[in-house]
Design a protein that fits this description.
Blueprint: H1 2-20, E1 39-50, E2 55-62, E3 67-73, E4 83-89, E5 91-96
Antiparallel strand pairs: 1-2, 1-4, 2-3, 4-5
Length: 98
């Protein structure tokens, strides 16, 4: 019995110590899965073309000189010549510059 106890006791102690160990921290998400930080630029609406009921196509001249076309619901009732903020995170959205 003493021989069996000497053989089993170290294994039991090792198993108990392993059970008390902290689990490894979760792995960080790969860069491809992390959303890009939102980019905000200012611009001016050059033209608006109504599309399906409740949506519109906005042609915006960014302050950098780039021309950007955005299609989105017409919830803010924006007008030609109005200053807007371009929210670029995956999709580009246009909102009234405040």
């Amino acid at each position: 019995m003493e021989v069996v106890l000497r053989a089993v006791l170290p294994v039991l102690l090792l198993a108990c110590a392993a059970a008390c160990a902290r689990p490894p921290p979760p792995a960080a998400a790969p860069a491809a899965e992390m959303p890009a930080p939102a980019q905000h630029r200012l611009g001016t609406i050059l033209a608006i073309r109504p599309l399906a009921p409740g949506s519109a196509e906005y042609i915006v001249r960014a302050d950098s000189g780039a021309t950007i076309v955005v299609v989105q619901p017409d919830t803010e009732r924006l007008a030609v010549g109005e200053r807007v903020r371009l929210h670029e995170q995956g999709r580009t959205r246009v909102t009234r510059a405040r």
